[in-house]
């Protein structure tokens, strides 16, 4: 969901996990001139066609071939604990975005999937505090952003599995603790 805390969570996890990097879907938006406009004049940014998804897949696959190519710094995470011992050979890529699980070529790549949700009013309130380029036009949230979120969330629920749904109204600390603990468990499984 837009403004659900995806980037904040990813950045906090990066600081806590060994050899971790982030690829953000926002970095793959097409220029405004290439984004379609609907009959109401809304730029259709909340659809897969507004993104260079093939380029995103290529970047992820390149990272998988050579995890240090994006400049992952080999350093101890800030909150080193016993759970992270013997992880110097582990590389973690966090891919964050809003339409990741609806793009089939990516679905074979995930070890873990997290999906942040927000109720309509909270999402609208958070969105109204952000400045976008281009700026949201009146009615854009109700007429395009929220309907596209619901559409893609429904598709996701019908087609994807093994998704951990997270309540975006919880504190950043609660969300971080939940996901961090889950990742630690996943790392333990991978080492077994």
Automatic annotation (TrEMBL):
Pfam families attached to this UniProt entry: AAA_18 (PF13238)
Keywords, in A-Z order: ATP-binding, Kinase, Magnesium, Metal-binding, Nucleotide-binding, Pyridine nucleotide biosynthesis, Transferase
Top-level taxon of the source organism: Eukaryota
An example Gene Ontology molecular-function term: ATP binding
GO biological process: NAD+ metabolic process; pyridine nucleotide biosynthetic process
GO annotations of cellular component type: cytosol
InterPro entries to which the protein is assigned, alphabetical: P-loop_NTPase (IPR027417)
PANTHER family in alphabetical order: URIDINE KINASE
Family assignment from sequence similarity: Belongs to the uridine kinase family. NRK subfamily.
Name of this protein: NRK1 kinase
Source organism (scientific name): Haliaeetus albicilla
